[in-house]
Design a protein that fits this description.
The complex is a heterodimer of chains A (about 120) and B (about 425). By secondary structure, chain A is α+β, with helices and mostly antiparallel strands. Helix content of chain A is about 20%, strand content about 35%. The termini of chain A are close together. The relative contact order of chain A is 0.21. The longest helix of chain B is centred in the middle third of the chain and has 17 residues. Classes of the chains: A alpha+beta (about 120), B alpha/beta (about 425).
């Protein structure tokens, strides 16, 4: 997966703006290249939790575009690795791209979460 | 016919379609018809007779969980949108709580943190997100950490702010409560004061039915917040207030009675608030202790904490039968609130007036926490259960602070005078 610098900056900027809470949003991918970051609202604002909220019509319309979606959220201080909560709450997003940005480490990482296990997705700029 | 928009995560189950059709006047009927046409969708969108946890369902742009759930009406020719319910988070901090100096790090909707402090757009946005504080001097052994959740730090000084806000906003969302309608609630104190705040800010007239022997502070506070008061006989206690309020409401259907004893928004406020905050703040909880009043705290917070820590023991502090302890409720005294499911309690621990008074005094003397009268009962039970553990974490929920009980003798009178005072007065 490729996340160009401009898109990565948008994710980092949103994560910093939401401090001290976690930020979340959707990444739109075209042929595994990130083309746009859509910031969401954290409906349960917390430094340790997120609940992604987007206007449902907007999100449904995004789903009708011929692009893949990835869920993105920030970890305020811990590494960009899925937590137990992330794994337990993956739900319908199982097996789909799942990105985490660590604000403290300024690191972005991508993962697949499947059947309680996590596997990294190679990421480049 | 209703159009149902399908997210990419569920399209395999409908043969790749972006939207499909289904029939029905309510969300339940539409989803039932949908799974009949596309059986592979069933486990993804319906579970245990409700909406599956990892999917959100929207009608008219609103999450139906905030409307009438599966009973939400679907307009003719309307659109239902299905979307993934995405949530997660980073590892919670170690036992010991939130980082130093950041005790209120969790601004809910409506709050924002600015340079120099927290800024809220309404006092109602400051309900919840109360701190946990460790009580090391009250823990019977150093290997057991004892925490108290300080609900007295809510805007009107009690845990009931959560319940009042959730009950009113749920009724508004469902359309059951319309602007200007008058509210009526039986209460001997905290719930009335909390409802009075919510009612004042939202513009509803409020009448509280309270036992005539409720404390003078309570009556005065209710009036200051703008509530009208109807007194019920002292001898009937809080059960008498319930009886009279229900009689009044039956005689005049213009009243809207939130009725915390039977309102599912009561435990939900604690599931989504009190319990979620505890589960989020701590890495481990072995025992959760709360007072048995309406049952809302124990049911809601207990369920949420158990989801995070399946082996937790949820314990109710219950007064001895016939003992007017602290306004908590003895189930043997005749009224079991409909929202209370005793089967969901792991322990019921009886506590006497004397133990409660000793504990509320220790709480102030040793830890500097000025707890309300029920705080003594829950702390006494928490200490007892902590003593049974070799090591672990015990959390207890202090429903309010001591400020509304200053006319009482708990903190400085002789024990006989305290017992006599407690028999004269309704404290909850």
């Amino acid at each position: 997966m490729v996340v160009p610098a401009a898109v990565r900056s948008a994710i980092a900027e949103h994560a910093r703006a939401e401090l001290p809470n976690e930020a979340c949003g959707l990444l739109l991918l075209d042929e595994e290249v990130a083309i746009e970051y859509v910031p969401g609202e954290n409906a349960s604002p917390s430094p340790y939790y997120f609940e992604l909220r987007l206007d449902p019509v907007v999100w449904a319309d995004l789903g009708d575009r011929d692009v893949e979606q990835a869920v993105v959220h920030s970890h305020v201080s811990s590494p960009p690795r899925p937590s137990r909560t992330d794994v337990e709450r993956i739900g319908l997003w199982q097996g789909r791209p799942y990105l985490i940005y660590s604000v403290r480490l300024d690191e972005l990482a991508a993962w697949h979460i499947v059947d309680g296990g996590i596997e990294p997705l190679p990421l480049s700029r | 016919m209703t159009v149902v928009r399908i997210p990419p995560t569920l399209r395999t189950e409908v043969g790749g379609a972006r939207q499909v059709e289904a029939e029905g006047d309510t969300v339940r009927e539409v989803l039932d018809d949908l799974v009949e046409r596309h059986p592979a969708l069933a486990p993804q969108i319906l579970q245990d007779g409700g909406i599956a946890p990892f999917v959100n369902v929207y009608v008219g742009g609103e999450d139906v969980r905030t409307l009438d759930g599966l009973d939400t009406s679907v307009p003719v020719g309307g659109t239902v949108i299905l979307l993934p319910a995405m949530a997660g988070g980073s590892p919670t901090p170690p036992v010991g709580g939130l980082p130093p100096g950041r005790a209120r790090l969790r601004p809910p909707r409506g709050r924002e943190r600015r340079e120099g402090g927290l800024v809220a757009s309404s006092l109602l946005d400051l309900v919840g997100a109360t701190p946990l504080v460790e009580l090391p001097r009250l823990s019977p052994k150093s290997s057991v950490k004892l925490y108290a959740k300080l609900e007295g730090q809510n805007p009107t000084g009690s845990i009931k702010d959560r319940v009042a806000k959730t009950m009113i906003e749920s009724a508004e969302a469902s359309g059951e409560l319309e602007p200007g309608r008058a509210l009526l609630e039986p209460t001997s104190g905290n719930t009335g004061i909390s409802l009075a705040l919510v009612a004042a800010l939202k513009g509803y007239p409020l009448t509280c039915v309270i036992p005539e022997n409720a404390t003078p502070e309570r009556k005065r506070l209710l009036r200051l917040y703008g509530a009208d008061i109807v007194l019920s006989p002292a001898a009937e206690g809080s059960n008498g207030a319930v009886r009279l309020a229900l009689e009044l409401a039956e005689a005049d259907p213009r009243w809207f009675v939130p009725f915390q004893y039977a309102n599912e928004a009561n435990p939900r406020a604690h599931y989504e608030g009190t319990g979620a905050e505890i589960a989020e703040a701590l890495e481990r909880v072995d025992v959760l202790v709360a007072g048995l009043g309406t049952g809302g705290t124990l049911m809601g917070a207990g369920e949420r904490v158990r989801e995070a820590f399946p082996d937790v023991v949820v314990a109710a502090a219950e007064p001895l039968p016939g003992d007017p302890v602290m306004g908590l409720r003895s189930l043997d005294d005749g009224y079991v609130p409909p929202i209370l499911d005793v089967a969901k309690l792991d322990r019921k621990v009886l506590v006497s007036n004397e133990e409660s008074v000793a504990a509320v005094r220790d709480l102030l003397r040793l830890e500097g926490v000025f707890g309300g009268v029920s705080a003594g009962a829950v702390v006494a039970v928490a200490r007892r259960l902590a003593a049974e553990l070799d090591e672990g974490v015990v959390v207890t929920i202090l429903a309010d602070g001591g400020w509304k009980y200053l006319s009482a003798d708990f903190w400085d009178a002789e024990e006989d005078a305290v017992a006599s005072s407690m028999e004269r007065t309704v404290w909850w």
